[in-house]
Amino acid sequence: MAALALSTALAGCVTSVLDPNVKASQPIPAQLVSQMMARQMKPSDPILVRIFKEESELEIWKRTASGRYALLKAYPMCRWSGQLGPKKRNGDRQAPEGFYQVTAKMLNPASQYYLSFDIGFPNKLENALGYTGESLMVHGACSSSGCYAMTDDGVSEIYAVVREALRGGQTSFQVQAFPFRMTPQNMARHRDDPNMKFWKNLKEGYDILEVKRRPPVVSACGGHYVFDAQFANGEPENPLAACPPMTNAPDPELVAKRDADTRAMEAAANGTLISAHAYSDGGMHPSFRTMLEKNGAKELAKKTSRTRVPISRPDAVLLADQADQQN
Q1: Which of 147, 178, 227, 231 has the fewest CB neighbours in a 10 Å radius?
Q2: Catalytic residue, candidates 13, 78, 142, 147
Q3: Which CATH architecture does the domain made up of 2-181+280-326 adopt?
Q4: Entry's SUPFAM superfamilies (predicted)?
Q5: Measured at the alpha carbon of residue 162, what is the angle toward residues 138 and 153, in degrees to the nearest 5?
Q6: Which element (helix H / strand E) includes 73?
Q7: Which of 13, 139, 142, 224 is catalytic?
Q8: Mean pLDDT for each 10-residue chunk of the chain (327 residues)?
Q9: How far is the C-alpha of 302 from the C-alpha of 305, rounded, in Å?
């Protein structure tokens, strides 16, 4: 029975913990509320979340009084597993990449990893493509099996910000998960990666926040994402069918950015080495890597987790993660 419980925890990143109501009801730290007010934001204002694997960072963006979104805070990520590229099947240890919507029902105050929320993998497009997996989370601690681990302190603050936005009337918030910051330089560095066609599609949505300072409207047809499209006959039902006619013209600002980035990517490619595609398993933010190298896995686990659950000790899982990287 104990072995079954352990395998379930590692596969899905969720089970139960003690006293979930206390953890899930913690207020947003006063310092962060002050930062919101200084940027013309309220705790109840809508949010969106961006995740970057290569940089091992999670960003929270929040709508301001102007109606445009601005970066509230970036959080270092303690651990993600797998490689750069999308998650396709259950058990591949891949952390997802794509566009997701998170509702209040997807928040888990009884997570084994302190607190968590399900990012919504597989989405409608991924379902149509036959991708499999479940319970892919942003959670606490510093271990991952397809999830994004933020430490207990990090996820506690993130959870509070998310909770207050949903209580404020936002029915769901968007999570954008990327392999890296989609700059021309990074695109040039990874230009020979087999995932590049997919990443160029993700970049279309990435650019909308960069230019328009709002979340993109996400649709799917033709086997890929389509952003800010208005369709003559309503939203496409089949993500794999050819895209129906669109009634809106391309946005001039986005076209200009795309063209400028294409030129910059071509220029950067001339002097940029192509990134190797033989990845190690996942990664962590440099701040946690330094802590790991200085103090060891057990001390890192103590510093990043407030709880101890006998079924799956975070330090034991972290040691296993290290072994995976070496083999």
Answers
A1: 231
A2: 147
A3: Beta Barrel (2.40)
A4: L,D-transpeptidase catalytic domain-like
A5: 55
A6: strand 69-76
A7: 139
A8: 38 46 92 97 98 97 98 96 95 95 96 94 98 95 91 96 97 98 96 96 98 98 97 93 94 96 90 59 87 87 66 33 33
A9: 6
